[in-house]
Amino acid sequence: MSDVPLTPAVKFEAPDGAELDFRQRMSYAGYLQLDQVLTAQRPLSTAHDELLFIIQHQTSELWMKLAIHELKAAMRAIAADHPQPAFKMLTRVSRIFEQLNGAWDVLRTMTPSEYTDFRGSLGQSSGFQSWQYRAIEFLAGNRNVAMLKPHEHDPVVSGELQAILAAPSLYQEAILLLGRNGLDVGISREQLVTEATHVESDAVLAAWREIYRAPDKYWELYELGEKLVDLEDYFRRWRFNHVTTVERVIGLKRGTGGTAGVSYLRRMLEVELFPELWKVRTTL
Question: Which residues contact 78 (CB under 8 A, 6 or more apart)?
């Protein structure tokens, strides 16, 4: 018989009564369907940084899915004359874009040489083709109908984008709310061409000026204006960081999707979603 003492079996106890047996229970991985999420990254090359590139874009698409969910809910609340719940939703969208901005910081750790190692694997795929990004733009009010073209091959996606264009945008819903509160905005719901991008209006500018000159009188509308400005502020930062990241990684090369790359993205920086809300600051 060995003289070595037997080590007693270690007894493990669940911390604070936590469940440990999930054979018949919903688990964390099961609820989040992590078997699908964590196997959805399939690099096409052996390049080390391709996984970073895939994860950055996949997580961005998840955040955009939530942004679309919140924007649609905010628009329904505004259309129903209940703007206060929309404030929380619009704040959340702003914070989502703060997260999206942070993602560029991670992607910028990839050097041009590292990107070149796998860029050929992308083919013609490009963030330009993100239908969820297009949905966010359409919902907010930047409505270039020509941007439906890259999605014609997918009837489900195309139908979703066309449905968004068939209804007023977030900014149009806000303007209509101003009208229902007694302000002259120069247009009714029946007069809207919903698929069109909002055209800057003197009447809308005058309405916002009246609100900003008397915030106590129009507190809800005043707060709505600030929530919209906040959203566009974060959205602009996202666009700027996109341009900076692309120029840092590929310089002035054309994008994989055929766009002019940096020069195209710089033009997008000039787009204003809520023009009167920015101009009203000058007129006060």
Answer: 86, 170, 173, 174, 177, 224
Categorise residue 168: left if φ over 0, alpha if ψ from -120 to 50, beta otherwise.
beta
Query: 97 is in which domain, residue-wise?
Result: 49-283
Q: Is residue 160 part of a domain?
A: yes
pLDDT digits (tens, 9 = 90+) for 99-137: 999 998 899 999 999 989 998 888 877 777 899 999 999
Give me the pLDDT at residue 247, please. Answer: 83
Could you tell me the CATH number of the domain that includes residue 244? 1.20.58.480
Mention every residue, 6+ apart, whose C-beta is less than 8 A from residue 149.
none
- The pLDDT, as a whole number, for residue 45 is 95
Residue 256 lies in a domain: yes
Q: What is the DSSP letter of 122?
A: G
* Cβ–Cβ under 8 Å, residues 225 and 208: yes
Q: What is the dihedral of CA 266, 269, 270, 275, to 10 degrees?
A: 170
* Cβ-contact 52, 106 below 8 angstroms: yes
CA dihedral for 127, 129, 131, 134, sign (positive or negative) = positive
> What DSSP character marks residue 150?
G
If DSSP codes are grouped into helix, strand and coil, which group holds residue 58? helix
What are the tens digits of pLDDT across the range 111-120?
999 989 998 8
Cβ(62)–Cβ(54) below 8 Å: no
Q: Which two tokens stand for residue 280?
A: 């009203």
Q: Which of 63, 104, 90, 57 is nearest to 238 (CA)?
A: 104
Q: Report yes or no on 25 lying in a domain.
A: no
- Tell me the residue type at 50: E
The pTM (predicted TM-score) of the whole model is 0.88
Q: Is residue 209 part of a domain?
A: yes
Local structure of 259: helix, strand or coil:
coil
The domain tally of the chain equals 1
